[in-house]
Structures are given as structure tokens and as C-alpha cells.
Amino acid sequence: MAHVISDDCISCGSCEAVCPEGAISEGEDKYKIDPELCTDCGSCVEVCPVESISPKG
Fold this sequence. Notes:
With 57 residues, the protein is α+β, with helices and mostly antiparallel strands. The protein is built from two helices and four strands; from the N terminus they run βαββαβ.
């Protein structure tokens, strides 16, 4: 199950830098996670300063 980034994202880029799969990229208004590449490792959750990343549920 891939993680998702909410609208609370402040586009700081911290999550993209730590993603071991390269699943996170900058979108128009916020960063986005490619569900095909995300392995649900949770690295991005740990570094998000505004807690905008969560498991898709």
C-alpha cells in the first residue's frame, strides 16, 4: 500500500531526498508519491516536518 501526501504539504522536498525508490517527485502544488514505485518503507513519514504523509487507507 503506497503512502500519500496531503494538501498540508509545504513543498520542502525533505521526503524526496530520503525516498530510496525515487517514488516522490515535485508536483504543481505539492509533492506526490508514485504508487507504482512506493514500497511503503515509511522513510518519508519520518522526515516530514508537517506530518502530511500517511499510509493510503
